[in-house]
Design brief:
With about 90 residues, this protein is α+β, with helices and mostly antiparallel strands. It contains three helices and four strands, in the order E-H-E-H-E-E-H. The chain has two domains: about 1-35, no CATH class; about 35-90, no CATH class. Helix content is about 40%, strand content about 15%. A two-stranded parallel ribbon has the order 1-2. Strands 3-4 form a two-stranded antiparallel sheet. Helix 2 runs antiparallel to helix 3 (about 80-90). The chain is globular, with a radius of gyration of 16 Å.
């Protein structure tokens, strides 16, 4: 099942959240809200994730190694990247 996708007003995203979006989230447990974060927040997040993934001291778990679906999981990224803390607390 694909998540329902909605476009938000990127200049003022919170007021553009509708009852339909909330209902779909409550029904499905997930929705995609395009425009929820500005380009600046996305760039900051990308820098933070790059810092986390490039840090040899951060524990990373690899799933589906050497397959097309391979991905790495890390936890508590806000401990090692101030950019992630900014996203969590200031966005």
């Amino acid at each position: 099942m694909l998540a329902a996708s909605f476009e938000l007003d990127s200049q003022n995203p919170v007021p553009s959240i509708t009852e339909e979006m909330i209902d779909r989230y409550e029904q499905d447990g997930v929705v995609m809200l395009r425009g929820a974060l500005s380009q600046e927040w996305l760039m900051l997040t990308e820098l933070g994730l790059g810092r986390v993934l490039g840090d040899a001291g951060v524990t990373k778990h690899t799933f589906f190694s050497e397959t097309e679906g391979e991905f790495q999981e890390t936890v508590r990224n806000f401990d090692s990247a101030f950019e992630i803390r900014r996203l969590m607390f200031d966005s």
